[in-house]
Amino acid sequence: MRRMRISARADYAVRAALQLAAAVDAGPLKAEAIAEGQGISHKFLEGILGDMRKGGLVESQRGGRGGYWLARPAETISVADVIRCVDGPLVSVRGERPPDLAYTGPAESLLPLWIALRASVREVLGVSLAEVAAADLPKGIAARADDPEAWTNP
Asked: Sorted alphabetically, which InterPro entries does this protein's record hold (predicted)?
């Protein structure tokens, strides 16, 4: 069984978005500053920020006073929003979204299982950038992370 993976693009995008969320009062941030602050390749980050701009999550301005900033308040942007912007749907099966699937016979109950998985992922990744940047995760999410079993590989 393959494990769920968060791509490097998604990880870098979320980290960049958190850097922008934390600097909301500092004005636009240069891509170089974001890359340096998060230990991300500047060239790779530029492409990610471009996708986030096209996706409506960040805005940018060129020039000496230019840089990037969040297009909306960090409270209204979820981690899921960022991941979808750079990687597409959060959960897919064979490249298809679970509601588009159909199973028969003993596999019929797989569909509700995939839907439940998608709902769980949405719940966890529905945390806002503001919550993560402030280290103020919702109690349910924090409780899951506090479970020692969550940190081990079965």
From this structure: Tscrpt_reg_Rrf2, WH-like_DNA-bd_sf, WH_DNA-bd_sf
